[in-house]
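User: Some background: our group keeps a shared notebook of sequences we're curious about, and every so often someone picks one and asks for a predicted structure to add to the entry. Today it's my turn. The entry only has the sequence so far, pasted here. Could you supply the structure so I can complete it?
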Amino acid sequence: MIGAIAGDIIGSVYEHSPIKIKDFPLFSEESRFTDDSVLSVAVAHAITAKSSYKKAVREIGNRYPEAGYGSTFILWLFSLIEDSYNSWGNGAAMRVSPVGFAFKTKAKVLKEAERTAEITHNHPEGIKGACAAALAVFLAKNGADKEVIESEIEREFGYDLDRTVLDIRPDYSWESSCQKTVPEAIVSFLDSVSYEDAVRNAVSLGGDSDTLACIAGAIAEAYYRDIPEEILLEVRNRLPDDLWKELRRFYIEYGINEIAGRLKKARML
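Assistant: Of course. Here's the predicted structure to add to the notebook entry:
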């Protein structure tokens, strides 16, 4: 899950200033966590505390009203809209990675991913995007190779993953839908050689960079099981203590051993 948050922070600078190159600074003074991180932590909290997703997202989301939420989500967050609003936006997929890390069967992952989405994004494409992102994390965490991940996601959801970053980049632009964000984020992972490379791929598409890198970063963490210590330290330095406490709690219960070991070595866990 820290891979998702790191991707969000790295991509935050380029969300409204898109780039089409992979050679860029990973962090700057402007790098910050956004709604992707806040809501991922909220989902993690719901899982560890065994509370409802709706309650956790509203409670933790309200602590950070300036995190960069979409306009309709803001109305829902502050209870001006009580019910789901049929969104197909990529917000359903950006917050779902804890589900892929926490649950032990494909059926449970898909069920819980749908539950995280439907509190707001109950459009079929919103639910589909959340389920695809969570399943990719689940498969990667459980040792599936890239060919299996690609074929499973294509078969289950009908996404076209038979592309490369070089294929996508020239004509891709900022996009908020699940259907035009989740496949591209998964390709960014599939076309990578490391965690950092997956995040750089995602940002270099020139789209909704924090969300693309958040989704790709979560899958890459699960697959490569290796996030450089300097990236972990940057995340710790930029994440507020209350969000870090929730992240730490989730890692103690559900985290990948290799990443947890790095966090312990850096005295962050």
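Suggested note for the entry: The chain has one domain: 2-265. The first helix runs from residue 2 to 12.
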